[in-house]
Design brief:
- This protein has about 325 residues and is of the alpha/beta class.
- It is about 40% helix and about 15% strand.
- The protein has 11 helices and 11 strands.
- α9 (about 245-250) links the parallel β9 and β10.
- α2 runs antiparallel to α3, α3 (about 55-75) crosses α4 (about 85-95) and α6 (about 145-155) packs across α7.
- The longest helix is centred in the first third of the chain and has 23 residues, at about 55-75.
- It is globular.
- The N and C termini lie far apart (about 50 Å).
- Residues about 170-175 and about 320-330 have low confidence and may be disordered.
Length: about 325
C-alpha cells in the first residue's frame, strides 16, 4: 500500500502549552516515535495526524497519549521539566503491550520508581504477590534495581522489618586475596551496586543509620549460612555465580513473613570452568513448586543506554547459547 493510501489517525490535545514538551527539543520525541513505529506524524495546532499501517498508527497514538497524560499529571503537581529520552522509550515499549499492562510505580523515600516495560510491570506485581521470585535476564533490565525498590517500599510501609541484600563474592578475573585491605574492604566492591541502589531510593543519612541498626544488611552469600530470616525482604543478586549448594542454603533461609528475590543472568557465569551454576540448578529443581514464580527479561527490556540493547543482541546473535534458558513459571 502506498503512503498516500494509508489510514490517518487524528489525536487532539486540550493543552497547547504542553505540546513543545511532548514533541521535545527540535521535535526529537516526535522523530523517535515516528522511527519506532514507521509512521509519519504531522502537527497543526493542537491536532496530530498520524499516517501509517493501522496497528502501527494505533501504537504511535497510544504512545503520544501516554506521554501527554504524564505531562498533564506533572503540570498538576507543579512540575513541567519535559520528558527524558527514557520516558519516551518506556511509552514506546508499553504501546505494543496488552491493554492491561500499566507503568506501575513503587513508592520510595526519594522518588517513585516506575516500570519502563510491560515485563518490568509484571515483575513488580510478582514481587508483591509471591514469596519467592526469580528474575532472569541480561544486564540493564532492572532485575535487581526493581527488587531493591520493592524492598524499600515494603520497609517504608512497615510490611517488613529488614532488608537483606546479598551477592556471591565471585571474581571475574581477579582474586580476592590479591586485593588490598581487610575483608570488608575486599568484599565491598562486589556489593557496591546494592549500596548504589539504596542511596538512589533513600536519603544517605537514613541508609547509614539503618545499616548501623541492622535494619538494612548487605553481606556476601557465604555469611547467610545458619540463619533464619524472618520479617525480611531478602535479595540475592548475581545468583548465576552461586553454586548449587550455596543456592540451596540461601533459599532455605526464608523465614516467617519474609519475601525473597533471586536475580541473575545465566549468560554471565563467572564460576570456574565446568562448575554448575546454582541458578540453573534451581530452575531445574524448582519447576512446579507452589509459591514460586519466574520472570524472564529479554534484550527488549534493557533500559540503559540504547547501545546496551544493541550490544546484548549482537552477543546473542553470535552465540545463541548465551540467551538465558527458558524457565517455566510455577503457579501458586
Amino acid at each position: 500500500m502506498r503512503r498516500e493510501e494509508l489510514p490517518v489517525l487524528h489525536v487532539n490535545f486540550e493543552d497547547n502549552s504542553l505540546l513543545p514538551l511532548l514533541f521535545g527539543e527540535h521535535d526529537r520525541n516526535l522523530a523517535r516515535i515516528e522511527q519506532s513505529f514507521d509512521v509519519r506524524v504531522a502537527s497543526r495546532g493542537n491536532v496530530l495526524a498520524i499516517t501509517g499501517p493501522q496497528a502501527q498508527a494505533d501504537a504511535a497514538k497510544q504512545t503520544f497519549e501516554r506521554l501527554y497524560d504524564r505531562l498533564v499529571a506533572d503540570k498538576r503537581k507543579g512540575g513541567g521539566n519535559g520528558l527524558a529520552p527514557a520516558d519516551v522509550d518506556a511509552a514506546i515499549r508499553f504501546a505494543g503491550s496488552p491493554g492491561d499492562a500499566k507503568a506501575r510505580g513503587i513508592a520510595t523515600w526519594r522518588r517513585p520508581i516506575e516500570a519502563r516495560s510491560p515485563r518490568q510491570a509484571a515483575y513488580i506485581d510478582a514481587l508483591g504477590d509471591y514469596e519467592l521470585v526469580f528474575g532472569l535476564g541480561p544486564a540493564g533490565t532492572g532485575k535487581t534495581y526493581l527488587a531493591v525498590a520493592v524492598a524499600v517500599s515494603m520497609l517504608k510501609a512497615g510490611k517488613v522489618d529488614r532488608i537483606i541484600l546479598s551477592r556471591p563474592a565471585v571474581e571475574a578475573g581477579e582474586r580476592l586475596g590479591f586485593l588490598p585491605g581487610d575483608m570488608k574492604e575486599k568484599i565491598d566492591p562486589y556489593l557496591r551496586p546494592l549500596y548504589d541502589a539504596l542511596y538512589d531510593m533513600m536519603p544517605g543519612d537514613q541508609v547509614d543509620r539503618r545499616l548501623q541498626a541492622g535494619e538494612i544488611e548487605i553481606a556476601p552469600l557465604a555469611f547467610m549460612r545458619g540463619r533464619t530470616l524472618a520479617n525480611s525482604f531478602i535479595i540475592l543478586d548475581e545468583a548465576q555465580n552461586a553454586t548449587p549448594t550455596q543456592m540451596k542454603m540461601f533459599l532455605t533461609r526464608l523465614g516467617e513473613n519474609s519475601r525473597m528475590a533471586v536475580t541473575g543472568d545465566p549468560s554471565q557465569i563467572d564460576l570456574p570452568l565446568g562448575a554448575k551454576s546454582g541458578l540453573n540448578d534451581a530452575m531445574e529443581t524448582l519447576r512446579g513448586v507452589n509459591g514460586i514464580t519466574v520472570v524472564e527479561f529479554t534484550d527488549a527490556d534493557v533500559v540503559r543506554h540504547p547501545l546496551v540493547t544493541r550490544i546484548v543482541r549482537a552477543y546473542n546473535a553470535r552465540d545463541p547459547r548465551l540467551i538465558a534458558p527458558r524457565a517455566e513459571e510455577a503457579k501458586p
